[in-house]
Amino acid sequence: MQGKIGHGGFEAVGTPAETDPLTLTSVLSYDEIKLAALLYVSCHSEFINNGSRANAGAVTQNKDTIEREGVVIGLIGARFERPDVMEYQDIMITKTQNTQTKGYGFDLDKMSSETATPASDLRRIWREFYEEPKDFIYTDTPYNPLRFEKVPEGFFDHQVMRKRYAISFDTLLLEAQDRAVKAGKPAYIHVVGIGLGVWKAASEQERTFLECFEGRLRFLGERLSHI
Q1: Around Cβ 97, how many Cβ atoms within 10 Å?
Q2: Would you state the pLDDT for residue 1?
Q3: Which terminus has fewer CB within 10 Å in the chain: N or C?
């Protein structure tokens, strides 16, 4: 906004350590980006190809092989590129992040206003959002390979990842249903993996993605009359 260029330094935005030009009045903090990533945008569009992940914007000459128009729904997947921010806070369990100093490891039913700290209170908000009774100190992570996958950074929590996916999947399915009902047509959804390309952080993430999508289809089944 001010015409200045550079890279890095966004972790300090919104904190006492922020410096110009990366201040909360000019740019988003990572906390704001985390919230914004739960939103979506949808609009009508003309299609020029089949929409595959590597389509590169190439124009398909034989228009009989593609859908000519439809609705694009833009969703945002989880991000793990930067440690200690966005979904990394909720899904990754690491030695440096998951400490009591940073608010982790407290049971919701044992916390009070007297024992809470700003860090633990922020963790409480996100635990309640994901309906998780507690989060984990790295050294106390339970042995449960179906939930916690070992990754180079520490552990990847597939249970919370499913809940993060569910927000986006429900948004996609219910938006498609609503638009299809209003158009009086069935909706055919072309799903591209969100956060499964260069953003993927665990080898079992595709499985979690597909299992969660199937689960949301079953859960919303009767409401998806036009899909």
Answers
A1: 18
A2: 60
A3: N
